[in-house]
Amino acid sequence: MMLPALLRPALALALLLPVVPLATQAQAPTATDSVNIRRIYDEALARGQSYDNLRYLTGQIGGRLSGSPQAAQAVQWGQTTMEKLGLDRVYLQEVMVPHWVRGKPEKASIRGDKGKGVNLSVCALGGSVGTGGKLRAGVVEVQSLAELAALPEDKVKGKLVFFNRPMNPLHIETGRAYGEAGDQRRSGAAAAAKRGAVGALVRSLTLAHDDFPHTGTMSYQEGVTKVPAAAISTKGADELSQLLKADPNLSVELEMSCQTLPDVKSYNVIGEIKGSKFPDQIITVGGHLDSWDLGQGAHDDGTGCVQSMEALRLLKTTGLRPERTVRAVLFMNEENGNRGGMKYAEIAKANNENHLAAMESDGGGFTPRGFNIDAAPAVVRKIEAWQPLFAPYGSSQFAQGHAGTDIGPLKGQAKALVGYDCDSQRYFDIHHTAADTFDKVNRRELELGGASMAALVYLLSKYGL
Question: What are the angstrom distances between the C-alpha of 417 and each of 270, 283, 359, 385, 392?
Fold first, then answer.
């Protein structure tokens, strides 16, 4: 007898699955799992809601910097959207967040002894102080914090330190290149101030060569003078470097009006489906609701938020009620403080909650590749046993690695931290820029990602760890 078309892939997969000892049989994927996961993907691809939800979040609300009116609107939107899903519970979790404001658009130009000034595309780094009017100073170019530390004091004092180390293009994983170059953005201003500099200019963290400056958080050190810090576009950085070689005495004029205001009350938005068999065991899946203010916060991290909500909708709509409680969490303030992630973990610990796993999507909404897992080796092996189920969908690359900033504070509470992993080659072209807009998101890639996340949540809920 010919099998129904729906069951043929499931049977083929079952024949390929490894035979495992009876003691671990409960962890082995089954043909039924293959069929159920196919149902999840079918629902996502035919009737997915992630893309339309993202359209509203980015188009009607836009950039959502912590403490801003837009962030408050996003909280209301997240709560209302999850309530419409008919979840068992939707609620807000209060958290105090930083309130840094950019102010008027930043201005910068290169000034030489002769000729007209050359404008530079810059933006203030998050948390920076303003310039208090126009700041004009000479420039010293360095490639690293170590090079700065080795310079004689008279080469740095009274100048703007220009950190011009590019991201390494040789790394296949662009996140690795981003991480390696990030120290100059995070710590450059403090290091420059220690040497008597009046400010810092930092090459944007991207492999793209364009005129978009990339913002991002920076930090000061207690007892060290706070000096302005700005990101400069890669095109502008290359131009400034070339002009410095021709005229080491040129100066840069910088004007920024950013400032830090008192902390503001905000919220994590949480929706959950109670587990049918083990309601006290919790699986968290989330993204961060806040974003930088330059663009619409589409890939960073609107996509992660809508995918997390979609994961719960897919389980509910397909009738695959989870055996363990599943929560979608829209975290507030990942970009410049991680207050939401820390508050969520703090309350989870205070309530003595049993977190089985936490999953995060914060690498954009591009084509799914798999998952990064931060857990004990035995737990990693249990999750890796499910890889064959994801092979038909191109998301079977499971590896140990960093899972995410928002769920990081749950380390030690959850058995596994899991980061949704997608193609990263284009992500840092738009990361933290005015170019991070809805039109950069592909509907099919986004919905496939939400389905991949829902499929792993389904398995975690069914088998546990």
Answer: 18, 10, 6, 16, 24
